[in-house]
Amino acid sequence: MTDFAAVEKGHELPPITVHLTRADLVRYAGASGDRNPIHWSDRVATGAGLPGVIAHGMLTMALAGRVVTNWTGDPSSVRSYGTRFTRPVVVPDDDEGAEVELTGTVSNVEDDDGTRVATVDLAARFDGKTVLGRARAEVVLPS
C-alpha cells in the first residue's frame, strides 16, 4: 500500500505485464467500434506494410493508464492523460500473444490549493522497445 502523503519525484509505480492475444483484439474491436482489419487480418495488415496484426493504439494507451489507476485505486483520480504512438504492438496468431510491459514514474508533485497532484511519466514496452512516446498523466493523489 502506498503512503500517498510521502510520494515524491522519482517514486516508481508498481509495474504491470499484459499478454495480448488476438481474442483480446477482437473483444476490444467490438467494445470500441474500431473494426479495422489491420487488427485481425494478417493479409490486410501486411498488405498495409505492417509486420503483422497490430494491437489498437488506444488499447495500448488504456493499458498503460491502468498503471496509474491500479496505483491510486480510483480512475477518477486521473486529471489528464496523453501520449503519442511510436511503434506498433504486433500480436501473433498463437496462444501466447504479445507481452507488453507497463511502468510509471512520478516526475513531479505539486500542491494545487491543498490538493496534491502528481505528474506520472508512463512507459509501455513490447519486444524491449518503447511503443508509446511522451505518455504522461496528471493524477490527484489520494489523501
CATH superfamily: Hotdog Thioesterase
User: How far apart are the first and last residues' alpha carbons, in Å?
Assistant: 13 Å
What's the main sheet like?
A: 6 strands, antiparallel
Low-confidence stretches: none
DSSP summary, beta strand count: 6
Determine and state the CATH class.
Alpha Beta
Number of domains: 1
Q: Which structural class do the helices and strands define? A: alpha+beta
CATH architecture classification: Roll
Number of helix segments? Answer: 3
Question: So what's the overall shape?
Answer: elongated
Compute the gyration radius: what is it? Answer: 17 Å
CATH topology (fold) name: Thiol Ester Dehydrase, Chain A
**Secondary-structure element order, N to C:** EHHHEEEEE
Helix content: 10-25%
Task: Describe the protein.
The structure is a single chain. The protein is an alpha+beta fold and 143 residues long. It has a single domain, classed as Hotdog Thioesterase (Thiol Ester Dehydrase, Chain A, Roll), CATH 3.10.129. It is built from three helices and six strands; from the N terminus they run βαααβββββ. Strands 1, 2, 3, 4, 5 and 6 form a six-stranded antiparallel sheet that branches. A hairpin with a 2-residue loop joins strand 3 and strand 4. The chain is elongated, with a radius of gyration of 17 Å. The protein starts with 15 loop residues before the first strand and ends with a strand.
